[in-house]
Every structure is written in structure tokens, then in C-alpha cells.
Amino acid sequence: MRVVKFSVLILMIMLMIAFRTDTLWLNPAQQVSISQSYSLVAWEIGNLLDKWAHRISNLVSSNSVDQSKFLQKYFDLQAKIDSEIENSRDMTGEKADNNSYGVGFPLDDLILERDAYKNDVEEILEGAISLAVNETGFGLMFQVVFPPVDIRLTQTPYLLVASPRDSIFRKYEVLLRPETDMDERIRMENELQTRYDLSAVTIRIGGLAAYPAPVAHNSQLRAVLGTAAHEWVHHYMFFRPLGQAMFRSENMVTINETVADIIGRYLADHAYGILTKEGMDPILDPISHGSAMRTPGNMEFDFSKEMRETRLHVDDLLISGAVEAAEVYMEQRRMEFVENGYHIRKLNQAYFAFYGSYAESPASSSSIGDQLNRMVELTPDFKTFVGKIAGVSSYDEFLDTLDELERSANQ
Predict the structure, then answer these.
(1) How much is the pTM?
(2) Cβ neighbours around 238 below 10 Å, total
(3) Would you list the domain boundaries of the chain?
């Protein structure tokens, strides 16, 4: 009964988040996407209770799970699924979606077999991240992790992002159903441009800070852990000043997203170590870098360097008022990225607005990433860093906190 009451409490909290979020989308992005909009409320209702039902079932049955076997099987199957999808890449350079295949396609059997392991793999990953939270020292008393780590491995939604053409920021955005096809996504992007003079792009997101957090299927253990930990950091910060101030300014969005990257990466590394000690073969899980899909090409092409140079030059062009020149330049650069194996379907102001919110990304021109990493260096341990950044509720307060740490270090 206590578990059920706790589940309902979390559900109520997260439903309030969902309702609050849905009311914000009264904008052009919502108007062009109304038929394809993704319901956070439906996600919460359809998944939270199912997750807890699985946990209760496990407690009742007391079945032990061979963690290394389950993980290895799940990620091996996902690698086969990725290979099948890669072989069916469509002409736009994007991977075809799982649900675009007809009945009887070999992929269907692979998905069914993978999904048989999904619930248990979710539990294993959640346990590893929870243990990592406690090992880093910022769990609660008696090693209680709040909110509990809760994820669902699934097909994640798309995000339709719109930015002004003469500047770069996330002006409008709306979640789209995972099954939204390419034609529909292109229609929305074009409509935002022609009707509202906005730059737009649709992006398949890796995860979402709903509860439980939808996390995209991925064949790499480290990548899944990174996304799951990133979303849990958003859950954690929701109950603290930093998360509650996330949408007060563009800088606060960037701080929140970059903090989730930094802390999430730290937790994921710990969780990865925990799981590989249990028998998961790390050789089968290489670290990947960059947000674009990579295929063999010019190995001397430095994605991060080239993308950062592109972003900085676009900023200069937009500041000078050369909007059309910036758009021509971005398309030229996009083709260069594609020629070198990075399949970027659309490179525009909206692309930079989204990826630029993650200040460590090469698509960002923000100094916040360097500032946050400097704060990590100036704090004696990671727990202290988390405590300090969690209490920040404005960009000015963040800068004051950083200045205070700098002065203390120089004394």
C-alpha cells in the first residue's frame, strides 16, 4: 500500500508538470502540429502504473535476474535492429522508423524478442544509476534516492523546434508523436517558415524528463545510461531552485541542460562501471561522440571543430543582419557534413537553437559550458558542486556563485 500511495503521489506531481507544460504550447508550432501532438498526460497514465505493477510482480515472484545475461541479450538484439534499420535508410539520409515496416519484416521478430527483456533491463539500469547516486553522496538519508530513478525504454517522440530567422533561440517547440512520418514533419517545418517566417526543424529526442522518463532504445549501454541519468537530473532539480527556474530565461534553460549533461555523464560513468563489473563486456560498448549519425567518410574531418566554426560564423552573419547569407552558408555547410559522413537533414537557426541549449555541444556558442566546468574544478568534490548549482535560480546568481568560488580559490 505504501508503494501504491507513493506512486500516486509521484503521478500527481508529474501530471501537474505535464498540464503546466501542455498549456504553454499555444503558439504557431502547436497550430501546425495539432494532428500529431504528443500527450504527456497519456504517457504518464499509460506508463507509471505499469512500471510499478512490474516492480510489485517482481517482489511477489522473487525471481532472480542474471543481470549480465539480460543486458548482453538486450543490447545485442538492439544492435541487430539498428543494423536492419541502417540497411533500410531512406533517401533523405534519416533512418526509417521501426513502425514504417510492414508485418512480416524480420525487424518485427527482433523487436518482439528485444522487448521481452525490456522491463528487466530497465530495472537493472535504474538500480545501477541509483547506486551511483548514493556512491557520489547526494542521495538522501538511509540511501534513499528521490525522486526514484524511473525510465521506460521506448520509441521517443520528435520535438518540433522553431526559431526566429534573424536570431537563434528556442522560441516555440512542441512534442510530436513518435510515429509522425517524414512527410508530415517536413510539412510542419515548411508551414512554419512560409506562414510565420520561422526557421524550424524536427528532431528525434533521446529522452524526456517525464515520469517515468522515456529513453530511446540504443545499442550502446553507455549512451542509454547517459540519457537516463540526464533525465533523472532534471527530475532531481525539479524540487530545487535550479530546476524550478529553468524556463525563466534562455540562459537558465542552457544552465539546466548543461548541468544535466555534466552530472548525468558523471553518474552514467559510475553506473557503467558498476554494470561492467557484473560481467557486461565493455568492448562491445564503444563511446560515441557527436549528435549526428556517422557513416564511413573522411576520417580527418573534425565534426566538433567544423560545427563550432559554422555556429560562430552564423552568429556573426545574423548579428550583421545578413539572414539570407547565413541560410545559404548553413546549407552549404550541411552538404559538407553529409559528404563527410554526417547525415544532417537540416542545418538552420532552429537546429542551432536546440543543440545550442547544451553548452558543451559544438553547436553552441555559449560560455556557460566552460563556466560550469570551471565551477566543478573549484568545488572540493562533486557533491559540493551539485549542492551549489542546485541552489541557483538565475544566471546572475550563477555568475555570483562562480565569482565567489574564484575569490576563495585565489585567497
Answers:
(1) 0.85
(2) 18
(3) 1-61+157-204
